[in-house]
Amino acid sequence: MLTISRSIVLPENELTERFLRADGPGGQHVNRTESAVELRFDVARSPSLPEPLRARLLARRDRRLTDDGVLVIQARRFRDQGRNREDARDRLVEIIRAALVVPKARIATKPTRGSKERRLAGKSQRGKIKQTRSRDWSRE
User: Fold this and answer.
1) What is the CATH number for 63?
2) Do 63 and 95 touch, CB atoms closer than 8 A?
3) Which of 44, 64, 119, 138 has the lowest CB atom count within 10 Å?
4) pTM for the whole thing?
């Protein structure tokens, strides 16, 4: 069981772990031990996630999310397989907790009179600068 919040708990059978050989330093047994962990979680088909949370997770532009809606996390930070497993699970929890926060709806507003005047003043000033350039070229 992986606890996300009080109401959301992911059972072990929804997580798929694959162990692979990690690159980088590892000592004598670097080519024999499979210490890196690839954790897969099917966001699109998980019955444990509420529908609004699932929609927010799938809407994220995350390169770790496949076209089928599977979240793939690779952990190879440590030399120890157990620590990499824990790291991958912690990162999954962080991603899901970040999606729990509902983004505040943006309220459309109109520009103020002062901001319109400042924008127009800036445009006219820029136009005057360009006008002076054109006169300089015509004299030559």
Assistant:
1) 3.30.160.20
2) no
3) 138
4) 0.72
